[in-house]
From TrEMBL:
Domain of life: Bacteria
Limits of the HD domain: 18-132
UniProt EC number: 3.6.1.41
UniProt organism field: Paenibacillus protaetiae
NCBIfam families: bis(5'-nucleosyl)-tetraphosphatase (symmetrical) YqeK
Reaction(s) catalysed by this chain's protein: P(1),P(4)-bis(5'-adenosyl) tetraphosphate + H2O = 2 ADP + 2 H(+)
Protein name: bis(5'-nucleosyl)-tetraphosphatase (symmetrical)
Entry annotated with the keyword Protein biosynthesis: no
Entry's transmembrane regions: none
CDD domains recorded: HDc
């Protein structure tokens, strides 16, 4: 499958608005890769596929999490988290992606994790700050992204954690670990 075929296939699995978000993540991830010395082709590939499973039925995501022996803990947390590991599985099985770094960047794009790779950080940050995103604090994240990948991504996780706290929702442990890890790296 070539790049154009992959794009058409991913696009066909989501509403037009989500596809425009994906295009924003692609462009932003390439820019960040060039700025911070990562491979732009890997950043773009992860970005194309990062939300491929976002609109899959919940029951299908749940089935894949169980059958593929993904951490069952996921099922105890917000369903919003599920499309990331399921998307990594789809990238490998439906699109033949074999690059473990690309698969990890997709797998951890929502939750983050401790010791995030540069590619993980780029995809996660691009997801936060692509031009179509609008939430309080996004412009500050865009500003920080010109100076520090870690500081910008930390501001992103702070925003998500604040949002979850405000809503009284639980926080997936990997997100707490990702934030702790970034603070350690900054200091
Ligand atoms: O798929 P996108 O909408 O582009 O963005 P995403 O994959 O970063 O998903 C973000 C959503 O996940 C956001 O609405 C917050 C929600 N979420 C729920 N629980 C958690 C969580 N995000 C993180 N990082 N950690 C959680 O525990
Ligand atoms: Fe996502
Ligand atoms: Fe995200
Ligand atoms: Fe996304």
């Amino acid at each position: 499958m070539n790049r154009e075929q992959m794009i058409e296939s991913v696009r066909s699995q989501m509403p037009e608005k989500r596809w425009r978000h994906t295009e924003g993540v692609m462009a932003t991830a390439v820019t960040l890769a060039e700025r911070y010395g990562e491979d732009p082709a890997k950043a773009e590939l992860a970005a194309i596929l990062h939300d491929v499973a976002k609109y899959w039925p919940t029951s299908r995501m749940e089935q894949i999490i169980v059958e593929q022996h993904m951490p069952k803990e996921l099922l105890l947390y917000d369903k919003e988290l599920w499309h990331a590991p399921v998307g990594a599985w789809a990238a490998e099985h439906d699109y033949g992606v074999t690059d473990a770094e690309v698969l990890d960047a997709i797998r951890y794009h929502t939750s983050g994790r401790r010791q995030m790779t540069k590619l993980d950080k780029i995809v996660c940050l691009a997801d936060y700050m692509e031009p179509g995103r609008e939430f309080p604090g996004v412009d500050r994240i865009r500003e920080l992204s010109e100076q520090s990948l870690d500081k910008a991504l930390l501001a992103g996780f702070d925003s998500t954690i604040g949002f979850l706290l405000e809503k009284g929702r639980r926080i997936f442990p990997l997100t707490v670990e990702a934030r702790n890890g970034l603070i350690e790296e900054i200091n």
